[in-house]
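so im writing up the methods section and need the DUF1963 domain-containing protein record in one place, dumping it here so i stop losing it
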Amino acid sequence: MPCIIVVMTRNASATPLHDLARTHLPAEAAARWTGLLRPGATLEKAEAGEPVAGRLGGLPLLPQGVEWPVWEGHGPLSFVASVDCAALPAGELDIPLPADGTLAFFYFDGQIDSGDAFVDFADPECRPGARVIHIPAGVPVAERPLPLYECDHGEDGDDCEDCEQLEAYPEVPLTVRVEATAPDIWHPVVREAFGSDDSSLEGWPEEFTDALYDRKPGPGHQVGGHAHPVQNPLEYEIAHAALGQDVRWDDPRVAEDAGNWVLLAQFDTDGDADMMWGDCGALYWLIRPADLAALRFDRAMFTMQCC
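--- predicted struct ---
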């Protein structure tokens, strides 16, 4: 199974995760587990005077000629967040992010149809319901007004009671810091490092797994690093969806391909931005490193997990 080899810098051996592993795991297991840590860019609400690396909500800045993303047959997607690649410490991450430009994330959140249409990552027909747009640096952009949702008004052309307008989420500026991120204990790289036998993974000390959860109980907003799943590791979901619905979950190709995907970005439920994804869930975009390096954001895969 492919794995990501990471060299952690900036006194990585002194991070809280290293201390946690040394406290709760035997020395050899602690060294093996901390070798799987990856740097991630955590995005948090920017306070006054802090540098801004992105934002949740508001209105997107799009170039002329770039249409507001629409899921045909359903309606326009909601603008979730944007990230300024030049403001990210890309040199401290281990994914080939663009050095500059902006990433804009859109998702069909159900506000138009009261949640009738669900963006199912496993269904190829649903994939237009989540989108990533890369806007290169230097391209002129302008704030794009909210699109109108056109419903069937009938023959008289009058507005009907079912006609609704897309609403923007409150804008929340985000600042960034780099920190070590840990894989879920069922993550492909953990299975590779500690054995694929499920019984070997069920033997983690409870104190260790509890301390991991207590340190960061929610997914949070993040670019790169290990994703923080609400349920099971995202990589298996994405690999299965990419291989096709006809592939069985226990097909060895699913586990093999799961190691080929990295987190591009995740956005958590956020009260300041009035964002609630399912039942306190999170939105995730994953991508293969080669596609990321080639700026093929159209090949990014989306999933949502909630409690």
